[in-house]
Amino acid sequence: MSEDTNYQLLIVGAGPVGCVMAERAATILGWKVLIVEKRNHIAGNCYDMHHESGVLIHRYGPHYFRTNKEELLQYLSEFTDWIPGDYFVKVSTRGELFPFPINLLTLRQFFNRPEMTAEEAAQLLEEKREKIENPANSEEFVLSRVGRELYEAFYLGYTQKQWAIHPRDLAASVAGRIPIRLNTDERYVDHKHQVTPAKGFTEMFKRMTDHPNIDIMLETDYTAIKDKIKPQFATVYAGAIDEYFGCCYGKLPWRSLDFEFKEVAQELVQPCVQVNYPNEHDYTRTVEIKHVTKQQHPHTVISYEYPKAEGDPYYPIPRPVNKELYEKYKALAEVETQKNHIYFCGRLAEYTYYNTDEVIERALATFNTIKNRYVHQ
Ligand SMILES: Cc1cc2nc3c(=O)[nH]c(=O)nc-3n(C[C@H](O)[C@H](O)[C@H](O)COP(=O)(O)OP(=O)(O)OC[C@H]3O[C@@H](n4cnc5c(N)ncnc54)[C@H](O)[C@@H]3O)c2cc1C
Question: Ligand 1 within 6 A of 253 CB?
Fold first, then answer.
């Protein structure tokens, strides 16, 4: 780090939000920027690293980069080349592996009707689905689309393990994110661009922040420096919003995960990057990221994900009571932005499930807000 502590912008958190914000402020505005990050690495939850075997792993869960936005992809392409993202998921249920999300191939296999056409599948789902007009929760949502048999085989157990909450107590939008297809498209997501950084996410964010105007202090919590370093213009805070305010209204609940990484002396083990286990084991899914990174290596690493209540905050829990609590913090944050020039942006700061492309868009939008407030043309 340079001796000069005369920063125009202070950023808390070196995740996607922090790195994008720093790059934009340094490149477009010529500002001097300091990022403080409490972990010992950049890239936030997108962090990938080499396991002791030499296999590249996604340390905080698999990251499947996808976007429909050409412009966003172009921007990130300044810092990385891409390789195709082969995002395929299977579900282990009833002793077989089925393609997921549910599509025509899944339905043919599940109902043992190998010749079933799309029209017949639509008819079958119409017969199976429960006629619920306005689904009020995740259970009703799935029942209203595919009926009880598929709900119990594919969704119920997975949701309970993942959230430790019954699907009837979760917002309909949680299940609503997963498409159901009547064609043979087996891809996990629908987006136009499904790619992964050729050398990994960490490398991409490293290149993004490799700028003479950007300093990064790792293993430094915001609380340790906030009274010492006062930026000239603004602070972008990508940490947890409740922590910023000393949890004055109580803690916002998060779902966390334990990751267990196991090396196997084999090139590949699974048929695809991810296998979900709704009804067996304590873990929810196993991930073999080599299917996506295409790394050439004689060994592979499988990660096992065990959901838990305490630990690093990974998923905000989508329940109305939590949203209400967040809104109280958000009101405080708005005052803080106006009075003290602190901008809250990102997954932790907005208590919102954002994918990486979405959070980068948030960062770009926040950058524009900051530019408009502090830079006079
Ligand atoms: C298990 C899992 C799977 C995911 N899968 C996908 C996927 O497949 N595709 C996809 O697009 N996205 C995925 N995501 C989402 C992606 O990780 C996020 O969208 C993205 O990382 C959010 O960026 P961020 O900068 O807001 O937050 P983060 O990446 O969480 O970064 C915030 C950083 O701030 C630091 N920090 C927090 N508080 C402080 C403090 N007080 N002082 C200093 N530093 C602090 C943290 O250590 C962290 O490094 C997944 C996320 C998880 C958890």
Answer: no
Cβ neighbours, 10 Å, residue 173: 12
- Residue 42 burial class via C-beta count within 10 angstroms: exposed 0-12, middle 13-18, buried 19 and up: buried
Whether 231 is in the pocket of ligand 1, judged by its Cβ within 6 Å, is no
Measure 354 CA to ligand 1 centroid, in angstroms.
Answer: 9
CB under 8 Å to 45, separation ≥6 — which residues?
A: 15, 60, 61, 63, 314, 347
* Residue 354 Cβ < 6 Å to ligand 1: yes
Residue 114, judged by CB atoms within 10 A of its CB (0-12, 13-18, 19+), counts as: exposed
- Best residue among 261, 348, 350, 354 to mutate for probing ligand 1's pocket (most ligand atoms within 8 Å of CB) is 348
Could you give the CA distance from residue 258 to residue 292 in angstroms, rounded to a whole number?
21
Cα 12 → chain centroid: 19
Residue 358 Cα to ligand 1 middle (Å) = 12
Q: 36 CB less than 6 Å from ligand 1?
A: yes
pLDDT tens series, the chain, 377 aa: 443 468 999 999 999 999 999 999 999 999 999 999 999 999 999 999 999 999 999 999 999 999 999 999 999 999 999 999 999 999 999 999 999 999 999 999 999 999 999 999 999 999 999 999 999 999 999 999 999 999 999 999 999 999 999 999 888 888 777 788 999 999 999 999 999 999 999 999 999 999 999 999 999 999 999 999 999 999 999 999 999 999 999 999 999 999 999 999 999 999 999 999 999 999 999 999 999 999 999 999 999 999 999 999 999 998 889 999 999 999 999 999 999 999 999 999 999 999 999 999 999 999 999 999 999 76
- Helix H segments across 29-103? 70-76
Whether the model pTM is above 0.90? yes
Cα separation of the two ends of the chain: 31
**What amino acid occupies position 357?**
D
Beta-bridge partners for 83: 196
> CA torsion 73→257→348→188, rounded to 10°?
30
Question: What domains are defined for the chain?
Answer: 9-48+198-251+316-374 (3.40.50.720), 89-176 (no CATH)
Q: Which residue's entry shows tokens 């056409």?
A: 117
